[in-house]
Specification:
mainly beta; 4-stranded antiparallel beta sheet; 135 residues; 5-stranded antiparallel beta sheet
């Protein structure tokens, strides 16, 4: 099942029920090459938003972080989504990930799978930003 990505969530309370919320996400990471297809989705509270549609057994998401055959590799993805919560309640926007291969293998955010302390074992930065837009 999907799990929240630590550090990729933000709370916002719209000042008006007619306001829109612009959500911008940049995510970088990987899974173990050949084993873990790291799928990412965007959420408002417990509701998936801005992702593709489920179709049969296919998982709805906005990105797949999968280096195919390179344990040093990472993938990056982003999404911009204009949301209409239509209220003045506090909302949490967040990113969740799941292993699309159902192998139970490791998925990594902000680093590659190998993560060795060498010139090939880099660290990265993901972000989520929200902005209220008066309508």
């Amino acid at each position: 099942s999907f799990v929240d990505v630590t550090g990729l969530s933000v709370d916002i309370t719209p000042s008006s029920s007619s306001s829109k919320i612009l959500v911008k996400v940049f995510i970088i990471g990987s899974g173990r090459a050949g084993y873990a297809r790291c799928l990412a989705r965007l959420m408002r509270d417990s509701t998936p938003i801005g992702n593709s549609s489920d179709a049969g057994s296919r998982i709805a998401c906005f990105a797949q972080l999968y280096p195919s055959n390179d344990t040093w590799g990472v993938q990056e993805a982003g999404i911009e989504y204009l949301d209409s919560p239509s209220d003045t309640n506090s909302h949490t926007y967040k990113v969740q990930i799941i292993n699309g291969n159902s192998s139970g293998d490791v998925m990594c955010i902000n680093r590659n799978y190998d993560d060795s302390n060498s010139s090939s074992g880099h660290r990265y930065s993901s972000s989520i930003t929200v902005m209220e837009i008066a309508a």
